[in-house]
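Researcher: Please translate sequence to structure tokens.
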Amino acid sequence: MNELNNLTDDQIISLAPAAGSLTPIGTVSSRYSFVPTLTAVDLLREAGWLPIHAEQSIVRKTEREGYQRHLIRFAKNGLSFDGERVDLVLYNSHDCGCAFKLIASVWRQICGNGLMVASEFANFSHKHIGFSPDAFIQSAGEIASAAGIIAERVDEMKVIEMTPDERGVFAQAAHGLIYDEPKQAPVLPHQLLEERRYDDKGKDLWTTFNVIQENAMRGGLKGITRGGDGRIRRTTTRPVKALDRNIKLNQALWFLTEKMAELKNVEEDLSTVSA
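Model: Translation complete:
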């Protein structure tokens, strides 16, 4: 863990000021129960989770500044495996926007991808009203306990080889998740398969998933858009900065990948029976 940044409270607040809020937004009802994010951070620290990254969403309404949604990533000793690491992501806001969320995340060290696990056993929500520190820490413990299961699923994805047609279908499905109107998207599905580094040349399901996720989340792909005047313009896709969008898209891609793995395993079982 020595290579990780163990953030202090001041460093967390400098990266995500909303995490340091000592009061909720002024428009909350009298029923609202305020639990500071830093209280949750202290609970996780006591359980061995170290905060290593923090960020917050951009707000359009100035009155929400300082109370908006924010995300803190935690790492824990003993949860690394074969170039990846199981982290815990804490998501919260102080504007009635969401409850505390604890989400398991696979951190791919080669490229810094933070993949959000969509499985129910790796996602927990805790309301501010009636907040229970014990239940909160129990959820964090369940994420740590699930690290072995997550590692197994990743290992399964790594040995599932994809044909060119299968990778194309996977990219097409991911494209539909990324763009609400695929026909008007700035890039075509096959562009999501463009590797950014030599280590991503593999055609297995895990590598394919990571390549698509990185292209979707970090942007940078060259494409075209059609303006209202009908003219075609060159453009470059932008990174996903909205935290809500980041989490929802990440989890949707994880769910899609798990379903692809299930289909491939069924296909392999049928081939074995036929033989």
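Researcher: Any highlights?
Model: The chain has a mean pLDDT of 89.
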